[in-house]
Amino acid sequence: MAKTVEEKIAAIDAALSFGGFMGSELVRPGSLENKIICGCRTGYRFRLNNLSYRGVWISTLENIRLKMDGEEVPHCDMSIKLRDFACQVDETGNNTDIFWAAKDECWVVVNKVGGLKPGEHTLEIEISKRNDFGHSYGEGSDVEGYRTRALEFQHPEVGKQTLVCMIEEE
Amino acid sequence: MSRLKHGITLYGFGMSYVHGDAELEDILQKAKDIGCDGIEIVAPQMVPGHPNPSDEWIGYFRDACARYELDPVCYSIYVDSGKHRGRFTHEAERMTDTVASMEYAKRMGFKVVRSQDALLPVTMEKMLPYAEELGIHLAIELHGPYCPSTPIFQEYYDLFERKNSEYLGIVMDYSAFASGAPGNVLAPLPDDAVHKELLYRINHLYATTEIPEEELIRMIYAEGGDAADEYAARKLLFSIDPDTAKFGTPYWRTHPDYEGFRRLLKYSRYMHGKFYYMDKDCNCPGIDYENFVRIMKEENYSGYIASEYEGFDTESSDSEQIRRHIAMLDRYWDKY
Q: Residues of A with CB below 8 A from B114's CB?
């Protein structure tokens, strides 16, 4: 069925999130898997696509919201894992020296005893992110004469994706 | 007859790299195969360990450049003003980061460090002694949405005139001189969201005529388009206000700033020949390369021009697009 005008405009906005770099593909396809430790299921995880052509500072992630099968995942159960670094999603802003390079694997890890059951799951994710860099003058707020706007840093961009993922039978 | 010095920015292979389809060695091989006088690397993108690469990697990179007979010319860095929540980076942080990057660039063999306009003119001036000590040409990129007449770039020009140093300058990016939106600007949009063929025709008219925007909108509706097409045209095809643009570019239609380009050439050792698509006949729609290359020739430009591919054409490879761009540049250079 053809899209309505409203649906088309929503599709345009989704495709242009994060400068159109990733389109609406925030999550790496096929990456959802249970976290199995010595045969024990302690949760699940999935891999994020990098949000920039050049890598990003973890501290620019303002928020990550996740719904699994329609149920909101509390932030206290969610963390980020990148190389040998890990932190709660609420703490990304405080880690200003962690660079998520273009080829680094970055995972969202969710604590959930028993993990996800085999079969289809609907994952809804929303990521808010400030720009790492920009072209406005407000960056020089401590330099005389440059106390101006820097809109790109004050209004985080929001990317959303909904996808159906499969957890295979073990 | 003088020859135009060609650079290749490895950024042009960035999509292949980021998506895991190519490693740095593959990309260096491609650059070698295409043939160029020098290369540029975007440090955060392709330097592992950025912003503090290891001695081991620096040694590897120097060896690789020697092995592929590639001359490292431009080390591209950023001013990441947004990394702290609630505040911008301080000037001291921007200076420290820039000095460190210039040191790494020096150790890797680069001659030019390209930074951004967030390294304000007053801060850039403070960098001059470090640039002189390291023998590095520190340059600010002039990228859309800005142009030579944008106030801050007039300040840079004043600084260059006042210092008249070979160690301070500008990297002009052709995005600042584009007549219209890139020829592939609608590619990220779903096919069922807009009438792409219609909008590309509107884009061509926008870049090559001065038909008012509202008249072009009427044409969209007259030819079967709808409000989603109008939304896309206003967001992507028509000129973007530099005050609110993020990375968008104001498009200059039939009047790009040729004289501003000419004025800044004196302080340019390296520039970005930005392009989004090259057709089979080696023409670049949307950017008037012929007249800009003519100006470069008239002004005896002796620096590099890097072919910077920022497209995702599905019918030809990134290497082929860059080859076509180099062929176009040489054609115009030889013509004048």
A: none
Residue B189 lies in a domain: no
Does residue A41 fall inside a structural domain?
yes
Is B187 domain-assigned? no
Sign of CA dihedral B299, B12, B313, B25: positive
Contacts of A54 in chain B (CB under 8 A): 14, 42, 44-45, 78
Asked if B194's CB is within 8 angstroms of A8's CB, the reply is yes
Coil vs helix vs strand at B129: helix
* H or E segment and range at residue A100: strand A99-100
Kindly give, in sequence order, each residue whose CB lies less than 8 Å from that of residue B266, ignoring residues fewer than 6 positions away.
Answer: B160, B299
A10 domain residue, yes or no: no
- Residues B8 and B319: their CA atoms lie apart, in Å, by 10
Q: Tell me which residue range forms the domain holding B211.
A: 196-237
Q: What is the pLDDT along chain A (170 residues), one digit of tens a residue?
A: 789 999 999 999 888 877 666 555 899 999 999 999 999 999 999 999 999 989 999 999 999 999 999 999 999 999 999 999 999 999 999 999 999 998 899 999 999 999 999 999 999 999 999 889 876 555 445 555 554 556 667 778 888 889 999 998 87
Structure tokens that stand for A138 in this block: 């407000």
